[in-house]
Each structure stands twice: as structure tokens, then as C-alpha cells.
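The instructor's notes for this session suggest beginning with a concrete chain rather than abstract definitions. Hand out the sequence below and ask the class to guess, before any prediction is shown, which regions might be ordered.
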Amino acid sequence: MQRLEQLQSWLAAQLPGRAFSLAPASADASFRRYFRVSFDDGANSLIVMDAPPAHEDCRPWLKVGDIFRAAGAHVPDVLAQDLDLGFLLLSDLGSTTYLATLQTPAADPLRDAHLYADALGTLAAIQAASQPGVLPEYDRALLHRELMLFPEWYIARHKGVTLTDKERATLDTVFERILAVNLAEPRVFVHRDYHSRNLMHIPGGRNPGVIDFQDAVYGPITYDLVSLFKDAYIRWDEEFILDLLIRYWEMARTLKLPVREAFDDFHRDFEWMGVQRHLKVLGIFARLYHRDGKEGYLKDMPLVMDYLRRACKRYGELGPLLKLLDRLDPEQVEFGYTF
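After discussion, reveal the predicted structure:
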């Protein structure tokens, strides 16, 4: 309550003489909270970010926001800030995520394709602005640390399974294979969570609005494409994904983005990047549940696991990982996929 009172006092100082009310706008998997500021005079609403300095640092958010905005992405404008208190007053990109829109039956059958085309256009603009040395490197250490969330939180904590020495060695070998492919990719600016919950749909406006970009890095070019097309929160037919992926690849070549010369090689990068991300996401979802008590992510685990299993079945080098997944979830072997 003290934190909320502090926030309201700060807002009153930024908005002298204006009557306003606060309502929760959204929350994410961190300590950040967002509130919508509505005005009694009917003026456009604003968003205030509450990022407690003991847990969160607003400076990466501000830096990445400036970079993405300069590249042409539609990110929130910063109207006021206090880094010592951890408060940012921002323009409001609305309350409708891509996910909410995509889950609504479309009157226009081309709507979803148009939304994804807009998302790809923004992503390409961000990638075209990429420079080394500006954002943190998505290096081997970080990629490996993410992979280790899987054995720590998904296998040991969520499934309650203790790996044998042989299984640990096998998993280490597979991780090295995955990292070798990931690290050989061309590198660009990477949002790291470029998916339907972090893209805002603005009817009649400039789509998409882009949020939750504070963890952006310089890393593999297919990473954000995996986030977008192998989304943990909504599933698309593989034909739809492949069509959009080809369209992106063709556009990227025209823009001289550093994609592979052959689409088959590019697609393999995409698939192996997905394996890294989905192992990480399973670990994160398990951690959010067991450590933070956020059980809502459990319902999204089966889709993520299905993405992972499908990729492992396509590539013989990932066979040992598929065998381990079979041991962790034997019902998947007996009854097949649920999606």
C-alpha cells in the first residue's frame, strides 16, 4: 500500500491540477507492474510503470525503447521518469494484445495474416538498425544458462526426476549441439519475447505496438521469429508458419539482412533456435509455478512441449533429447500429441 501511495503522489506532481484514477493495466513475470491512468476530463489515458528499484532497473527499458523507436518501431513514449523511485509515465498503446485479437473470430479472413505482416515489418526494421556493441551479447554463457533452467526447474522440480549420470552426459552433449547451431547464426538486435502478449493491436493505428523489450540483446536472427511463430500462447498450422517464414526470408534478403542464402539452412536455424527457446520456456514456466506461485503458465506447457518434440523428431541429432522427453512424459509416447 505504501508503494501505491508513493506512486499516486508522484503522479499528482507530474499531472498538477488534473483529476485521475488508477487501475491495473497488466503485470508480467517480473516485479514490474503497470497501471492505466484515466482522467476525469475524458483525455487520453496514460500508463505508469512501477518498477521497484530494489528489484528492477528502468534504464535498460529506456535504452532499448530509444533504439527501437529510432528504428521505426511503435513503442511507448516516455512522458516523465524517476529512476530513483522506479516510476515511468508512458503513452498508452491500448489494452488489446495481438493474442486477444487473434483469439477473436475474424470477420476478415486475411486479418491474421495482415497482423503478422505488420509484426514482421516492425521486426525487420529493428533488425536493420542492428549494430554490435550496443546491446548485451546473447552469448554462449547466456544461452547455456537459459538451457540449464530445463534440468533444474522442469526435470528436477516439476517432474521430480533425478537424471542418471549417463542422462546428464547425454543432455550436456545435446546442449552443446544446440548451442553450436545457435551461435553460428547471423546476429541482430533481438527483442527476446516478440510474441502475441507483447504486441499490441491498435485498430486504425500503427501496428503493432511493442512492449516488454527491456531484455533485448544482440543475438541470433531467428530468435524473435521463433517467439512470434512458435508462440507459447497460440498455435498456428505449420503451413501458415512456413508461408510467413518464407515471406520474411524473401523480404530479409531484399533488405540485405544477414539471413542464410538457402532457405533450408535458414529454416534449420529457426528450428534449432526453437529447441533452445522451448527448453528455456519450460524451465521458466516451471519456476514461475513452483517458486513464484503463478500457476497460470502450467496450461501453456503442453503446447511448448509439442513444439519441442516435433523439432526433435525432425532432426536425428536431437534423438537423444527426444528419448529423454519420452521418459519424462511417457503418456506422450503412448497416446500421441494432444494438439
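Then share the key points. The chain has two domains: 2-91, 98-335. Confidence is low (pLDDT under 50) at residues 334-339.
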